[in-house]
Write a structure and sequence with these properties.
By secondary structure, the chain is mostly beta strands. It contains two helices and nine strands, in the order E-H-E-E-H-E-E-E-E-E-E. Strands 1-2-3-5-6-7-4 form a seven-stranded antiparallel β-sheet, covered by helices on one side. Strands 8-9 form a two-stranded antiparallel sheet. The two termini are 29 Å apart.
Length: 185
């Protein structure tokens, strides 16, 4: 594995990524996060693959604090866990593409959008805590990509706390963005 930059943790001048890169990047929310990308990770083309728990495409190791993330006392809010899955699954997919000149990973043809995200919760996620995300891009067809992932309790013997599946769509290089002029991607 090799480290991969987490570009959603960096706020952009356009305001993009301000939620994950600012609001929840504090000592009271998600103070630490590391992404590891499997070496020799390639695009799938029209192939599909099965997830192998011991060989994820991408892993995130991260800490969650208590104050800003609680739903029930000392328990992470389920909606927040959906946010984690959305961002981590997006990075799982983009890590399959070569790095750009500035070290980021992008799709070969445009902007990524989450078309579908399903999360199944198996057990509460205690706060504070250190957790592991494991993700796999399992299929790709044209502009569509499918990703699977799971959140694991590092201190709880590797118990899976939540599992997710998602469908991502790549939109062309020039698109209408709500509230602003066409963006050239």
């Amino acid at each position: 594995y090799e480290t991969a930059p987490i570009w959603v943790r960096v706020p952009k001048p356009t305001g993009e990524d301000s939620f994950f890169g600012g609001i929840i990047k504090t000592p009271d929310t998600v103070p630490h996060m590391l992404c590891l990308r499997r070496r020799k990770l390639e695009t799938l083309g029209t192939r599909s693959r099965t997830k192998y728990p011991d060989d994820p495409d991408v892993m995130f190791l991260f800490t969650l604090s208590r104050a800003g993330l609680q739903g029930h006392p000392a328990t992470a809010h389920g909606g927040f866990l959906n946010v984690l899955f959305d961002e981590m699954m997006g990075q799982t997919m983009t890590c399959h593409y070569p790095p750009t000149d500035n070290g980021g990973y992008f799709t070969s043809g445009g902007t990524l959008y989450t078309a579908n995200l399903n999360v199944n919760f198996r057990a509460p996620m205690a706060l504070p805590g250190t957790y592991l995300y494991r993700g796999w891009m399992t299929r790709q067809e044209g502009r569509k990509s499918w990703v699977e992932g799971e959140l694991v309790d590092v201190k709880g013997g590797g118990r899976v706390l939540a599992e997710g599946t998602s469908l991502w769509v790549t939109v062309g290089k020039e698109i209408e963005m709500p509230g602003r002029e066409k963006a050239k991607i």
